[in-house]
Amino acid sequence: MDINNNNVINVNTKSIKKIVIIVIIVAVVAVLGLSSFTVVKAGHSGVIVNLGKVSDTVLEEGLHFKIPFVSEIVQVDNRVMKTEVESNAASKDLQTISSKVSINYRVNRSSSADIYKNVGSDFTNVIVNPAIQECVKSVAAKYTAEQLITNRAAVSTEMEDAISQKINPYGLSIEVFNIVNFDFSEEFNKAIEAKQTAQQEALKAEQDLARIKVEAEQTIEKAKAEAEAFKLKNDQLTEKIIMMEFVDKWDGKMPSVASGSSAMFDISSYIGDIEKAAEKTD
Question: Which helix (H) or strand (E) holds 32?
Fold first, then answer.
């Protein structure tokens, strides 16, 4: 009985060992199998790191094979990212300016390995934000505070170009650039308001002067017209008075004084009017 029991125990022990070995082998195979593949997420690129060394090869989105326990795949986000930076700057006329700038940017897929190798994954704080701070200050210093307001579009373009020159060499590109706001000191805002008020008052005075000038010219022209009309009426009245006096003194005979073949006093133009006046007198 003891011999049989020992045989059974030995058989069971061997079976258990075989099962354990099989389980271990299956687990190792499973681990190796799972470690041999990786999935690069949508909108990302995979940077291969072999035992700490960054490879120049960049993996596209999807399923990829890798060497287990040797290769590590670091995923770099190539989607559009956003950052906002607030900064203080001084204008050309030494006005203090508080600005807020927003940019949408992305990591170029072909530069994913280089930027991970040279900068790391925190490129926003290492590269982008400091570039924005520097470029905002340098561009703002070229313009007066008033020009920063009136030439905002040109200032925005210049800032975007300056930031692009800073970050493009690292494989970063700007998609959208916006100056969210420019804030100035209270004293400057009051000065601008006073200037605008003065300009509006000057414009109103200029318009009033032009209106007064036009009205004066109209008055002068009206006076001239009235004077000419009065003179014409006065001339006509004088002619009628002379004619009436002539009719009153006329004896009905035509003047006989003449010089050569022409009469010294030609009243032919008045004959019709004289006859009509004579008829009325009769």
Answer: helix 2-35
